[in-house]
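Example for tutorial group B:
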C-alpha cells in the first residue's frame, strides 16, 4: 500500500485543529505538540479526507468510530505521561490515539477485539513507524497473550460499564487509569491506584462523553 502524502493542506488543517483545541481549553503543550505531529487523515478512509481534522468522530469500519480530537486530547492529558512509561490501551480502533501516545514517547501495548481493525491498524502503525505493540483480544481481560504488567498507565477508549478488575490488577501502585465509565453515556474518570483495594483508589471526574461500548469477547468477523 502506498500511503497518501502529508501535504501542506493537511498540515494547515492540523494546525487549525490544534488552535481549535486550545480555544476549547486544552493547555497541555506536550499533548498539543503530539497532535500537531500525528497525521490524523492517514488513520481514516480517503472518503473522510476533507473532514479528518474536524472535531468529530468518524466511521472506521466494524461499526466503530475514531474518537473526537478533543476526546483524544483530554484522555492523553489525563494520563499525565512521561517518556518511557508503559501504557496499556484498550480499543486500538483506527490507531490514532495509539499514535498520539507514541508521539508522547510512551511504550504502548494496545488491544483490539475486532479482527479487521486489528489487522489493518497494526499494519498502518508499523508503516508509519509507530512502535506500539498491537494485540487481538478481549480487553476486559487485559493482555493475556504476554504479560508486560505492571503498567504505569491504563487507557480505555470505549465506554466501560464497570472498572474491569483484571485491568486494575495489571496497573502498578501509583499508576493511573483513564476510563470512560457508563453504559449509554460515560463519565470520564481518572483513577489513581494508591493500593490494591477500591478504598485506595482516588477518583477524579472530568465530565460526560459518548463512546462506543466496550464489548466482551473477541470478534473475528466484521
Ligand atoms: N482510540 C480509538 C477508539 C476506537 S472506538 C480511535 O480513536 O480510533 C473503541 C474501540 O474499542 C473499537 O475499535 C472497539 O472495537 C474496541 N473495543 C470495544 N470493546 C473492546 C474490548 N473488550 N477489548 C478490546 N477492544 C474493544
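The residue assignment follows.
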Amino acid at each position: 500500500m502506498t500511503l497518501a502524502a502529508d501535504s501542506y493542506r493537511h498540515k494547515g488543517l492540523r494546525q487549525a485543529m490544534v488552535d481549535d483545541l486550545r480555544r476549547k481549553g486544552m493547555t497541555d503543550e506536550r499533548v498539543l505538540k503530539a497532535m500537531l505531529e500525528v497525521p490524523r487523515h492517514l488513520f481514516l478512509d480517503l472518503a473522510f479526507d476533507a473532514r479528518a481534522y474536524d472535531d468529530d468522530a468518524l466511521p472506521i469500519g466494524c461499526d466503530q468510530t475514531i474518537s473526537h480530537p478533543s476526546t483524544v486530547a483530554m484522555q492523553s492529558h489525563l494520563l499525565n505521561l512521561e517518556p518511557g512509561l508503559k501504557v496499556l490501551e484498550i480499543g486500538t480502533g483506527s490507531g490514532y490515539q495509539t499514535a498520539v501516545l507514541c508521539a508522547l514517547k510512551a511504550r504502548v501495548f494496545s488491544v483490539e477485539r475486532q479482527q479487521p481493525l486489528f489487522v489493518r491498524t497494526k499494519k498502518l502503525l508499523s508503516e508509519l513507524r509507530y512502535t506500539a505493540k498491537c494485540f487481538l483480544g478481549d480487553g476486559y481481560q487485559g493482555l493475556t497473550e504476554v504479560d508486560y504488567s505492571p503498567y504505569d498507565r491504563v487507557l480505555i477508549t470505549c465506554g466501560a460499564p464497570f472498572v474491569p478488575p483484571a485491568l486494575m490488577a495489571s496497573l502498578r501502585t501509583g499508576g493511573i487509569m483513564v476510563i470512560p465509565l457508563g453504559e449509554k453515556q460515560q463519565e470520564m474518570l481518572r483513577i489513581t491506584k494508591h493500593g490494591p483495594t477500591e478504598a485506595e483508589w482516588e477518583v477524579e471526574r472530568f465530565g460526560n462523553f459518548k463512546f462506543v461500548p466496550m464489548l466482551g469477547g473477541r470478534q473475528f468477523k466484521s
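Residues 60, 64-67, 90-91, 93-94, 96-97, 111-114, 117, 138-140, 157-158, 212, 214-216 surround S-adenosyl-L-homocysteine (CB under 6 Å). Compare this with the pattern of hydrophobic and polar residues in the output above.
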